[in-house]
Amino acid sequence: MDSFTAIILAIFLPFAAAIFIPLLEKFLKHRIGWFAAGIAFLSFALIGIVAPEIIHGHIIQHSIEWMPSIGAEFSIYADGLAMMIGFIASGIGVIIISYSNGYMSHKEDLPRYYQYLLLFMGSMIGMVFAGNTLQLFIFWELTSITSFMLIGYWRGKPASIYGATKSLLLTAGGGLFMLAGFILLHTITGSYDIATILQNPAIIENIKAHPFFLITLILILIGAAAKSAQGPFYIWLPNAMEAPTPVSAFLHSATMVKAGIYLVARVHPIFSGTEAWFILVSGIGIFTMLLAGFLAFRQTDIKAILAYSTISQLAYMMTMYGYTSYHEPGLGVAAATFHLLNHATFKACLFLVAGIVAHEAATRDIRKLGGLRKDMPITFIIASIAALAMAGIPPLNGFLSKEMFYETSVEMGHIIGGPFTFLIPAAAVLGGVFTFAYSIKLIDGIFLGEKHHDHLPEHIHEPPYTMLIPAAFLAGLVILFGLVPSIPIHNIIEPTTAGIILEEVHLHVKLWHGLTPAFFMTLITFIAGLGIYTRYDKIAAWQDRFNARYPRISVNYYYDRIVDGAKGSAKGFANFTQPGNVKTYIYAILLLMVILFAIPAFMMATQVFPANLNFDIPLYEALIMTLMVSAAIAAATLHRYLAAVIALSTVGYLVSLVFIYLKAPDLALTQVLVETLSTIIFLLVIAKIPQTFKEKIPKTTLARDIVISSAVAATVLVLLLNATQGIVSPFESLSYYFLENSVPLAGGHNIVNVILVDFRGYDTLGEISVLCLAALGVYNLIHSRGEGE
Amino acid sequence: MNNTILSITIALIFGIGTFLMLRRDIVKVIIGLSLISHAVNLLIVSTGVFDGEKAPIISNGHHDSSSGIIFTDKLSDGIFAPIVPSGMEVHFVDPLVQALVLTAIVISLATTAFILILAYRIHEEYGTTDIRKLRRLRG
């Protein structure tokens, strides 16, 4: 199997499997989750096949024609970055789906759950391997949609619906900004192809010099920030916690929220090294890191703490990708990439622990939890490993990447100089202090201290192995990456960094670097973190008071205002256009018809009433016309149904006479037959409908209706007078064809018949179908009674 | 086919049908719709793209006819079997519009029957044929 096929399979296998899940569920029942896990493992293995090639520095590029008209190809661009996130998406996928087998109750709608998970996974893998920006956009939005489905998995809960809608509006909406950015990029470079842009220094130079540079960068960053819950867009992630916990672990900590980070890394070679890049990317990053880390204190739901922590950790990566200068393009990139990988391990693990705790103790409220270390010692150990890694305690993997973060902060501070020499490292340390404090809170609040017996079940025990093993596996990775960093560094981080900065890199990551500034910053972090932890509850209480006092200082407040306003105006508009009164609709249709026909007709003033009007017709024809109009008036004015229907059928029969006069014998015949039939149906029906009321038309309504009817009649008249003037058609009528070919091609002399049964035979087939459907409809309507009565 | 009186007639029937369609009683609305469909059928046929004097039927030549004319503008000239000797230089009316309208006539029968039954069912379910009262039943 060549590399291209392997990657295509890794992307589309989950999609294909998702289609068959409902079918397989019939045979596998609740074991369907293991099938899904198997598919995830296959995708993982398929990426594994191509990994050695990528690790050796080769970028796999291949494309097939897709939309040639707009110059878009379906192409694969597989470098270290794509490989790493592909590995995370499929690898964590295997772990999460396996865990779900224990977590999800068998009574839940399992096929839907696993379908969405697989669809998400395929979209995520498709996104990271996308070789052109349009393709990247499509898979990007697919991940948003599947995330929406998964957050709203419990359809009955209003909170789920709120969270799902919020995430869709922000992430998919942000995606549209990103698309606009890609289109601008296309106008600058003339290409949607990622490889063409990335591998061509001349094009990148051109972009950096282009007047659209800044706006393109901002548009793309809006997309990235919305997806990764950065800046003001952070608000969707806490509400996304309404999803089942494995989903939160998978999408909302390890993979989907990394898409924005991935995008930043992907466009890094294009935009980085500029002032705008540093200010925007690091600016958003530092702001979000401090804000979210601080806001985590207030949360009482352990999943909410994890959500704010995720936002803050993603902001670390954002910040570090922003730390790029002309001298050292690799500055920060390796640190961010390593942290991305580490975060995927320890945060997913913490979410799985949160799921276990909620599953066994039936609450996620940190105020009610406590003292679980004796009841579930294994979970306690796993949770401690993951939380301490997040806090940055050696020798776990979080320590290493945080150390790298501190180092790059110090260096970046030096490069900029001035007050920033201290400010940038200080911001990094402050972020670290917050992280340290809430990480300790998680361990302390759930597992240490006294057990609150009044809130918790008496017997809490370890979860089933299907839930414990995935979490333990992740904790194992946390330790492994911490003790032997060379494994991830050489196999994943170096090729990824090379993919981002387009240069070979060699990193030396060790647990002990000596007495470097970073070491002292870590020491400060631990001491200050412990100090703040003693004030943890006071800070949380202060935040609560602040929030109660200034409800308007909140992004959510404005989000809700805007969404409610939009809903209100949509409702107003719908009520205006859809008042529910049939007559209003008819008025609208008629008036539009009058306007569409009459205005152009009156604009061509000379032709409105043609000169050669022909009133010269024989008396008996005039008589037929007069009779017809009289019968129509009778049908309109006679009150009783029977009389009105008789008048109507009089009109119908007279129409058949007019058809004869118009030299249409077939029509005349048909009209007579149809009129007879429809009169019979009319009579049958009105015999069953007693006349219950007589409409008293108010004078104003009468006047209005007469004016409208007259306007319609006048429009028809003008139309008809002009149409029968023998206006020369700009194109030749089809009729000549039928006249000439009726006998030679169809052997029929009656041209109308030939058209109906031969030239336009399918129309007649359609007509027969309409008759059959109407007959079926009538039959069913008559027989449908009884349910309501 | 320039006939002003016919055009006025069609327009009047259309207008009356429109007026009926604006009524509250469903049965009246259906009668209005039927009138409108008559008017539309006539309208289409009378706007054939070319004028002629003959019905669009080509004779197979077996019939003996001295005049060769079946239909004229004047009904008093009589309605005969549609025979036009083949090979004769004749001017037909537009056959295409007739074919279209023939389909339309049949389909309007189907729709009329369907709406009538709908009206019947509405009466059965709600005991009224007043559109306004039905509206109050909403929500």
Question: What is the strand content of chain B?
Answer: under 5%
Strand content of chain A: under 5%
Class derived from helix and strand content of chain B: mainly alpha
Quick one: biggest sheet of chain B?
none
**Gross CATH architecture of the largest domain in chain B:** Orthogonal Bundle
Low-confidence stretches of chain B at least 5 residues in length (pLDDT < 50)? 61-90
What is the residue-averaged pLDDT of chain B? 75
Radius of gyration of chain B: 21 Å
CA-CA gap between termini of chain A? 66 Å
Report the principal-axis shape of chain B.
Answer: elongated
- Terminal Cα separation of chain B, in Å? 52 Å
User: Care to count the β-strands of chain A?
Assistant: 2
Please supply descriptive tags for the structure shown above:
heterodimer, A: mainly alpha, Four Helix Bundle (Hemerythrin (Met), subunit A), 4 domains, two-stranded antiparallel sheet, elongated, B: mainly alpha, Helix Hairpins
What does the model show?
The complex is a heterodimer of chains A (789) and B (139). Chain A has 789 residues and is an all-alpha fold. Chain A has four domains: 1-271, no CATH class; 278-288 and 299-528, no CATH class; 579-730, Four Helix Bundle (Hemerythrin (Met), subunit A); 737-789. Chain A contains 32 helices and two strands. The two termini of chain A are 66 Å apart. The model of chain A has no long low-confidence stretch (mean pLDDT 89). With 139 residues, chain B is mainly α. Chain B folds into two domains: 1-50 and 95-139, Helix Hairpins; 59-92, no CATH class. Chain B has four helices and no strands. Chains A and B meet through α25, α26, α27, α28 and α29 of A and α1, α2 and α3 of B.
